[in-house]
Request: fold
Amino acid sequence: MIYLDAAATTPVRRDVLEAMWPYLTGEFGNPSSHHQLGETAAQALAAARASVAKVFGCRAGDITFTSGGTEAANLAVKGIALARQAANPTHHRILISALEHPAVLESARYLAHRHGFVVDVLGVDPDGMVTPAALAAAIRPETALVSVMYANNEVGTIQPIRELSAVARKNHIPFHTDAVQAAAYLPLNLKDLGVDALTFSGHKLGAPKGSGVLVASGRLAMEPTVHGGGQERGRRSGTENVAGAVGLAAALSRTRGEAPQQATEVAALRDAFIRAVTAAVPNAVLTGHPSQRLPTLASFCFPGTSGEAVLLELERTGVICSSGSACAAGSDEPSAVLLALGLDPAVAQTAVRFSFTAAISSAELTTAAQAVGAAVARVRGTGTAVRPG
Ligand code: PLP
Reply:
């Protein structure tokens, strides 16, 4: 099997599992308990928090562990917007990019349906870029929060977060970025990025599914979305997933430690793969920004096919990837992200995303590119442009 769906999830790293193991077995205490077992768990949680904070150049108190990227984004978007609205009822607009993951988009829609917010959507250029000028033009005095993702999960475009957050800051509006796809390779120093809140997820980095983080100043006003025993400084109640936090911290620091040398190498492999696929499928359309894109992601449309049919053909030959709309699994709708880039809906429906980690080899990508050429030819030749089932 050649696994090219790392943007969906990654396996747990062995060294991460080893770091977690004690807290799943012998050291199973509840960090709120006042005995030695609890104390040991609390210490492990504190160490994980300090380790994550170091990566972001922030204080340990700015780290909130959650059950994943989705919960972290819900907390950031709803929590900040509701706190701003409570402090000043005229703050009832929320500004998000047209590329946001459902974790952000549906949180914004919830605010609109249940709390009277107006959702303003920032358009993108054909490469999927949000420009600082477009953001400046869209901000209103009533805007409670701006949320623009760091790197897109479908096309890999990387946003100019520093420039965008500077525009929000100038207007005294908090800025959140969904960094789920960015956390492995892109700069993460919170001060340098100028963001007020950043969220990410462990399972894209070799930690288990169900572990995530919100990074935001402990002083930033935020309405909790999960109520209970007041854990995580009241921001996120519930007995902490100690092993998950330990695993996420280990995965983040290890991935980041390896990232500087790996990013250039894997980007070169990605570029060779893009060249090989475009040679094998002459009218393939690379989607997303040509250079400002994740080093581990290449996404295409193959006009005259169906993305799902190509996907199934590839799986038959052992190449695992995803169609453009992985997050809307089971949906026949073309991806909203690709439509926002201005693609024709018929072309958008032919999207296939290939994503990997630095563990991928040049030989695997060469084999995969050949398989893509053959799969597209088969789908076109046999007219299997219809989703089975
Ligand atoms: N945001 C982005 C950009 C993602 O790609 C994902 C996962 O695919 C999420 C948020 C959600 O993260 P999780 O799967 O941890 O809930």
Q: What stands out?
A: Residues 97 and 122 are 4 Å apart (CA to CA). Residues 384-389 have pLDDT under 50 and may be disordered.
